[in-house]
């Protein structure tokens, strides 16, 4: 509990180990999330458009709305947990840095925008599919960078 008040991890190797393990688990989640989206939706424009809108030439049906809503629901829920954990640990470790506020805000903005833009691309504007892909990649890269910064501070003091 002393860490919560003083932010000093020098006297608590168990807390350092636990926080490192949680961040490693989030890194695993981020990697597997990319694999899942590559399999379900695709990570190139042709496969994304075929998944969302179908492809008559290759007899590919578009994804059902209930399947997409389930995916968006799961994405929002899991992304929120990952962001909350990463941002709370990051803020605790880097509270004196001026860049901390910007990094945390960007993490939340891109993390929460990705599933919403995917749904909007399906329902309203197919041109948003490219925007979704860009936001999705930025959110995952930013989460990986924040995770690595946290692990660097925790493991290599």
Give structural notes.
- With 157 residues, the protein is mainly alpha-helical.
- The protein has one domain.
- 78% of the residues lie in helices and 0% in strands.
- It contains six helices and no strands.
- Helix 4 (65-93) runs parallel beside helix 6 (128-155) and helix 5 packs antiparallel against helix 6 (128-155).
- The longest helix has 29 residues, at 65-93.
- It is elongated.
- It starts with a helix and ends with a helix.
* Secondary-structure element order, N to C: HHHHHH
Tell me the β content: under 5%
What is the tally of beta strands?
A: 0
Main structural class: mainly alpha
The average pLDDT value, as a whole number, equals: 89
How far apart are the first and last residues' alpha carbons, in Å? 20 Å
Low-confidence stretches: none
If you compute it from the alpha carbons, what radius of gyration comes out, rounded to the nearest whole angstrom? 18 Å
Number of domains: 1
How would you sum up the major sheet?
A: none
Tell me the overall shape: elongated
Helical fraction equals over 70%
Tell me briefly what this model is:
By secondary structure, the protein is mainly alpha-helical. The protein has one domain. The chain has helices at 2-6, 13-40, 45-53, 65-93, 100-123, 128-155.
